[in-house]
Amino acid sequence: MHAAEIHHLPSIDLATKRTVCAYVRAGYPLDEIADVIGASPAATGALIRRMRREGWDLRRPRGAQHHVKVSNRFLRELYARLRTQARATGEDLSPSELGRRAGLVGASGSVDGTHVQRLLGLKPEPGRGVRAAIPLDAALALGHALGLDPHEVEAHELRPDPSAVEPPTAAAA
Predict the structure, then answer these.
(1) Which of 43, 53, 62, 114 has its CA at 20 to 30 Å from residue 102's CA atom?
(2) Residues with Cβ < 8 Å from 124, sequence gap 6 or more?
(3) Quick check: 139 and 75 in contact, CB under 8 A?
(4) In terms of C-beta distances under 8 Å and separation of at least 24 residues, what long-range contacts does 91-100 make, across chains too?
(5) What is the number of structural domains in the chain?
(6) Distance between CA atoms of residues 71 and 121, nearest Å
(7) How far is Cα 41 from Cα 155, in angstroms, rounded to an integer?
């Protein structure tokens, strides 16, 4: 599907449009969205422009772009097992020590153990509750500190849910 072809297509199915919308809203870059729908980046860009004209809400998130989120549940479970083993042998695997091993050191050179606990979902965020997902870069750092391969961490990526996207009333017809 090339950019010129997209304008000649009578319609793109609703499922593809919902997928594009979900990924755009989550902040994924154009080339990754193109890969997901099996199109070229040029065709995907043309589709996004067409969807905007059709009234789709394609606003990207504001602020720092951490588009890839990873479930922290498996990291929390692995940390709990390894911490239990470490205690049995007299080693230190506190949240602060894990943060130090992961390189999550602040500007002052110290590790905020509470921040590590929040990343792992062991402690709630103030006014938000317990995190279920964390940015990929933090997950990779914690995973490395826990002895995981990057592919094992990336396998727990939380992809956007296209079924949660409501099309504009004109585009649904």
Answers:
(1) 62
(2) 118, 130
(3) yes
(4) 95/120, 95/122, 98/142, 98/145, 98/146
(5) 2
(6) 10
(7) 24
Q: Supply the pTM of this predicted model.
A: 0.67
Q: What is the pLDDT of residues 65-112, one digit of tens each?
A: 556 788 999 999 999 999 999 999 999 899 999 999 999 888 788 888
The domain boundary, picked from 28, 44, 63, lies at 63
What is 61-80 written as a DSSP string?
PPSS----EEESHHHHHHHH
Domain ranges, residue 36: 3-63
Contact predicate 104/138, CB 8 Å: yes
Residue with tokens 């004109």: 170
Q: How far apart are CA 134 and CA 68, in angstroms?
A: 8
User: For residue 168, is it within any domain?
Assistant: no
